[in-house]
Amino acid sequence: MDFAFAVSDGMGGAKSGEFASQITVDKITRLLPKSFKLAAAGLEAGVDDVLTELVHQIHGALIALGRSYEECAGMGATLSLGWFSPGWLFFAHIGDSRIYYLPAAGGMKQVTEDDTYVGWLFRNGKLNERQARTHPARTSLEKALGAGNQFVDPQLGAVAFEPGDRFLLCSDGLIDGLFNHQIEELIRNPSPAEAERNPAERLVLAAVENSGRDNTTALLIEAF
Fold first, then answer.
1. Rounded CA gap, 6 and 1, in Å?
2. How far apart, in Å, are the Cα atoms of 139 and each of 17, 36, 97, 155, 172?
3. Whole-number Å distance between alpha carbons of 206 and 49
4. How far apart are CA 179 and CA 2, in angstroms?
5. How far apart are the first and last CA of the chain?
6. pLDDT score, position 45
């Protein structure tokens, strides 16, 4: 059985950022089920092609609205989308929300790449995690859906998983409040008091307590 989860964070003045996220979610909700039906029917439609087309449709809708309504000018959204199929996570990503993979055996790996210059510096070893988290340009996006960009080029990928493995989808607000080792610790080894809440809730509460400067969203999915 196929299913999908996504995290989207909007940007723009007034409520246009919230509107951009809503458009993104609406497009996913309406278009992905059609793709699931094709997969169930055994029809060959490459997952990468489906996800790329979905990203382009969202981008086009945001650009069109931004050109048509002054209050929507420049609005945009980030997106981290996971399409779960038996044994595989297929994903599409643009912006600075993230997807992490947590194998049942231990460890945690970020599978998406932040579309920021600071993210590039971190991936290439020019900044450590602490420096990247405090860099003044850490929130400056190089890619986003809408936001006046003419083209979008999403990151696409796939991760094989086993029962018991977990995936975390989160907005940049979670990263602003927690280091990677804190995220893993809260998921795998919570204190007795923390364990009374579900893992996503305790992540969000801890991030907001430490920072609280941005929208904070976390989804934790366990494979079975």
1. 17
2. 15, 34, 11, 18, 9
3. 37
4. 31
5. 12
6. 54
Q: Which of 37-41, 101-105, 205-209 has the lowest mean pLDDT?
A: 37-41
Q: Is the dihedral of CA 210, 208, 123, 102 positive or negative?
A: positive
Please write down the HEC assignment for all residues of 94-162: ECCCEEEEECCCCCCEECCCCCEHHHHHHHCCCCCHHHHHHCCCCCCECCCEECCCCCCCCEEEEEECC
Look up residue 122 and give its two tokens: 């971190």
Which homologous superfamily is 3-222 in? PPM-type phosphatase domain (3.60.40.10)
Q: Are strands 79-85 and 88-94 parallel, antiparallel or unpaired?
A: antiparallel
User: From CA 47, how far away is CA 50, in angstroms rounded?
Assistant: 5
| CB crowding 107-123: b at 16 or more within 10 Å, else e | ebebbbbbbbebbebbe
- Bridge partners (DSSP) listed for residue 81: 6, 92
Asked if 71 contacts 14 with a C-beta cutoff of 8 angstroms, the reply is yes
Structure confidence by residue, pLDDT tens digits, 54-67: 999 999 999 998 88
CB atoms within 10 A of CB 176: 20
pLDDT score, position 43: 45
The backbone torsions φ and ψ at residue 173, rounded to the nearest 5 degrees and listed phi first, read -65, -35
pTM metric for this prediction: 0.92
Q: Residue 214 contacts by C-beta under 8 Å, 6 or more apart in sequence?
A: 9, 171, 172, 173, 176
Q: Highest mean pLDDT: which of 18-22, 173-177, 184-188?
A: 184-188
